[in-house]
Amino acid sequence: MLVLLAGIFVVHIATVIMLFVSTIANVWVVSNVGTASVGLWRNCTGGNCDAPLVYANEDALKAVQAFMILSIIFSVVSLVVFVFQLFTMEKGNRFLLSGATMLVCWLCILVGVSIYTHHYAGDKENFYSRSHHGYSFILTWICFCFSFIIGILYLVLRKK
Fold first, then answer.
1. DSSP classification of residue 94
2. How sure is the predictor about 4, in pLDDT bands with cuts at 50, 70 and 90?
């Protein structure tokens, strides 16, 4: 049981770190032609990330930014609640609050990445004629899977 809790804790920390990286890095869509990429915050060309996004004032992008920030907040809160429950909760109880908070994080990731995929990951809104998804986009989907698994495990596990 201790090994399982330690493993979940490590995966949770990795998920928080990957959420930070995927939200901060400007590598959601990458051009196949040059060294250009687009993220949630800036447009990067040749390693220079000074150019603002053309669609920076769109509500869809602001919603993606907000949901990604909320997912980070809920993931960190869930981690703190889990550590708190680990040391203060009576034996036999479940980690319900940690699991519920992590599932809210999962929902925020789902909404944010779905909006981004619908509005900006397709060919119609892309700046580059040939492009592919960057590591930030892929990391976010990995965090989506991890947060769902962690949230369900928190709901099922009991403290022994």
1. B
2. confident
pLDDT, averaged across the chain = 87
Question: Residues 25, 104, 55, CA angle at the centre, nearest 5°?
Answer: 40
Helix (H, G, I), strand (E, B) or coil at 116: helix
- Provide the token pair at 28: 């959601």
The structure tokens 């930070």 sit at 20
User: Which tokens hold the place of 146?
Assistant: 């991890």
What's the token pair of residue 122? 């397709």
Q: Amino acid identity of 108?
A: C
The segment with the largest mean pLDDT, out of 42-46, 47-51, 95-99, is 95-99
With tokens 């203060």, the residue in question is: 88
H-helix or E-strand containing 38?
strand 36-38
Contact indicator for 89, 154 with CB cutoff of 8 Å: no
Place of tokens 């800036």: 42
Determine the average pLDDT of the residues in 148-155: 93
Inter-residue contact 35 to 49 (CB < 8 Å):
no
Return the number of other C-beta atoms located less than 10 Å from residue 95's C-beta.
Answer: 25
